[in-house]
Design goal:
The longest helix is centred in the N-terminal third of the chain and has 16 residues. With 110 residues, this protein is mainly α. Helix 2 crosses helix 5, helix 2 packs across helix 6 and helix 4 packs antiparallel against helix 5.
């Protein structure tokens, strides 16, 4: 492989932002569902969805803010559950998991 080909291969992936597809584990889904239920009980699903969708480009920064706010999150989650949520939101596709949980929490149960 020539220097030019190696450089070209490196350049193709140097600024890639999408990782491999997200397959959340059951623990991540459980924490997302718990947060969604918390939001749904307060009838804030629509504002939460608007906030998540509008802030999608900044989700990694938002996850770091969540790490900063960890002491206050113990009102809703245990420390381990909160760390799972932060790790989920660090991934770009993690918002989709949370949005899906919010949609399911908003649906009326038969």
């Amino acid at each position: 492989m020539s220097v030019l080909e190696r450089f070209s291969a490196w350049w193709a992936y140097a600024f890639a932002v999408d990782g491999p597809p997200l397959e959340p584990d059951p623990r991540e889904r459980e924490v997302a569902a718990r947060l969604a239920q918390f939001v749904a009980r307060r009838q804030l699903v629509t504002p939460a969805l608007m906030l998540l969708e509008s802030g999608r480009p900044l989700n990694f920064i938002g996850s770091q803010v969540l790490a900063f706010l960890a002491p206050f999150a113990t009102l809703i989650f245990s420390r381990d559950e909160y760390e799972v949520l932060v790790r989920l939101l660090e991934r770009r596709q993690g918002l989709d998991v949370l949005i899906e949980a919010l949609d399911q929490a908003q649906e009326p149960h038969a």
